[in-house]
TrEMBL record:
Keywords: Magnesium, Metal-binding, Nucleotidyltransferase, Transferase. Its cofactor is Mg(2+). NCBIfam families: rmlA. It comes from the Bacteria. The keyword Magnesium applies. This is Glucose-1-phosphate thymidylyltransferase. GO terms for molecular function: glucose-1-phosphate thymidylyltransferase activity; metal ion binding. Belongs to the glucose-1-phosphate thymidylyltransferase family. It holds the Pfam family NTP_transferase. It comes from Shewanella benthica KT99.
Length: 290
């Protein structure tokens, strides 16, 4: 069974001073902590066993907020990344947790939203071999890992923050790997900035002919909260959609309830301490809406 890794490390230096004393993944994106969004995304993919990797100082705060996940019908464990040694290091840290099985790695500051997203995630999660990544059209590809395609739509290469991007397709922070990922990650050499780059790991699969790239269409939103502007835009986006529809985005309690991971009584208990904020009232409303 595929297990999930939520990488919530890093210093968040581009958000200083907001993140000088607290992890950015603990900051709110509109009405819920940022970390709720990636966890909900993995849940929608059908993943119920997760490992959250964070800085040692932040671990007690994450544990206090998220506990062991059983309140949402999932299993949540924790591990430390002492230094920001790169995204690919998460596969090495998680090797024992994965126990030789496939994984899904999501970055703690990446938000996904879309009508067909759950179907796409579950289909991707069911892919047993190789690695699967996504491509998303952006106006500023030079800020991301960029996927270059041939005339037939096949991925040719992936470049990390190229000065002259060969396409506008960025690779979002959600990756599905087979059981070989941890071994491959240990074979990667540090980049010039001293990190184990996720692009190098993905390119390893590409060179083996085992990389699957799926394009996220216009009906899907991918939000990166790495800068103050991006953070504000994400909050505004979530606020606008939720107010317009009256439905919450990536609410783990609702996802758990919809998937049958928790029952009516458990949902009521989760709602009780949240009634004053209105969040609890929304959860109780799920019981009547069905």
């Amino acid at each position: 069974m595929r297990k999930g890794i939520v990488l919530a490390g890093g210093t968040g230096s581009r958000l200083f001073p907001m993140t000088q004393v607290v992890s950015k993944q603990l900051l709110p994106v509109y009405d819920k902590p940022m970390i709720y969004y990636p966890i909900s995304t993995l849940m929608q993919a059908g993943i119920t066993e997760m490992l959250l990797i964070c800085r040692p100082d932040d671990l007690p705060l994450f544990r206090a907020l998220l506990q062991d996940g059983t309140q949402w019908g999932i299993s949540l464990q924790y591990a430390e990344q002492a230094q920001p040694n790169g995204l690919a290091e998460a596969l090495i840290i998680a090797e024992e947790f994965l126990d030789g099985g496939p994984s899904a790695l999501i970055l703690g500051d990446n938000l996904f939203y879309g009508d067909s997203l759950t179907w796409l995630l579950t289909q991707t999660c069911a892919t047993e071999t190789g690695a699967s990544v996504f491509a998303y059209h952006v106006s500023n590809p030079q800020d991301y890992g960029v996927i270059n395609f041939d005339d037939c739509g096949r991925a040719l290469s992936i470049e990390e923050k190229p000065v002259k991007p060969q396409s506008n397709y960025a690779m979002p922070g959600l990756y599905f790997f087979d059981k070989l990922a941890s071994d491959f990650a240990k074979q990667i050499s540090p980049s010039e900035r001293g990190e184990l780059e996720i692009v190098d790991l993905v390119n390893r699969y590409l060179s083996c002919g085992d990389l699957h790239v799926k394009i996220l269409g216009r009906g899907t939103a991918w939000l990166d909260t790495g800068t103050p502007d991006a953070f504000a835009e994400a909050t505004q986006f979530i606020s606008a959609i939720e107010k317009r529809q009256g439905l919450k985005i990536n609410c783990p309690e609702e996802v758990a309830y919809r998937l049958g991971l928790i029952d009516d009584a458990q949902l009521r208990e989760l709602a009780k301490p949240l009634l004053n904020s209105g969040y609890g009232e929304y959860l109780l409303g799920l019981l009547s809406r069905g």
